[in-house]
Specification:
The chain is α+β, with helices and mostly antiparallel strands and about 140 residues long. The chain has 1 helix and 9 strands, in the order αβββββββββ. It has one domain: minor pseudopilin epsh fold (3-Layer(bab) Sandwich).
């Protein structure tokens, strides 16, 4: 091979890498948001299950300062070992009735229903968002 052929091949490889890197960056952000959503859905389902099985109120508490979500027993204040840490680029907001809620927790009754109205946890990362909705009357968890 000549030097010119080698430079052409290296140029083509550089062009392909230059096109692929931005696409992969966007993909990893999307994967990070979906992974955080799945973990939070699991945590919310755990809190509901604990409320039903122990016959005590359990809550999912959002700690914005430490960027984590935990499950606690409302009566005793004891937390479980289940914790979800949010990636630094993901933000979360708790909404009730479509408006941002000052109380950053979702409380499940022993029946599995929520204390209060339907609540949503909105996760966002650079223009993309996922909404986890917990129905007030049934405690059913859906992702949009």
């Amino acid at each position: 091979m000549t030097l010119i052929e080698l430079l052409v091949v290296l140029g083509i490889i550089a062009l392909i890498v230059g096109i692929a890197v931005p696409a992969l960056t966007g993909y990893t952000k999307q994967v990070r948001l979906k992974a955080a959503t799945r973990q939070i859905v699991g945590l919310v389902s755990l809190a509901r299950s604990l409320a039903i099985t122990t016959h005590e109120d359990h809550a999912v508490v959002v700690d914005l300062e430490h960027r984590e979500l935990t499950v606690i027993n409302v009566a005793s204040g004891e937390g479980t070992e289940a914790v979800v840490h949010l990636p630094s680029s993901v933000t979360i907001d708790v909404t009730v009735g479509g408006q941002s809620s000052p109380e950053m927790r979702v409380i499940f009754r022993p029946t599995g229903a929520l204390e209060g109205r339907t609540t949503s946890l909105v996760l966002a990362e650079q223009g993309k968002h996922q909404t986890i909705t917990v129905t007030g009357a049934t405690g059913a968890v859906t992702v949009q």
